[in-house]
Amino acid sequence: MKFFIDTANLEQIRKAHELGVLDGVTTNPSLMAKENIRGTENCNRHYVEICNIVEGDVSAEVIATDFEGMVREGEALAALHPRIVVKLPCTAAGIRAVKYLALVAHIVKVYRTYGYKTQVLAASIRHTQHIIQCLDAGADVATCPLAAIEGLLRHPLTDSGLEKFLADHARLNA
Fold first, then answer.
1. Pick the catalytic residue: 15, 34, 87, 164?
2. Which end of the chain, N or C, is more open, meaning fewer C-beta atoms within 10 Å of its C-beta?
């Protein structure tokens, strides 16, 4: 499974990149606003700056809600950098998280059954457990915040096991 961090915060993106697990970045107008990035030109520069940090895809979401506006903005965003992937909003009613994860599994099954050459991206995953559910469902990509990714790196049994191994090694090699 690929991991995309869901943020526009450059410090978090750099940190995730340094962990060696980052495959890409997803962002949107709300995440840009959270970082106080204003205006089309500043947003565009920020997208390029993100592309200069990561080696994978960087999603950029259109603001327009009409077809022509989406196409126009999408083409402009795609022209910023070869790694920009344009996100278009889904305007249908939302599906609750549990139903959404079941939908991911269904979509994966259909695509694999018919041999479609595509990847399934589970978007806006918020918790470590949801990442695991997406893995179980067969998603190719999960886009999530840094805290959810870091949660995968923490487990009490790993921590206590490592502590014991190091203590045993120190005791025997002192």
1. 87
2. C
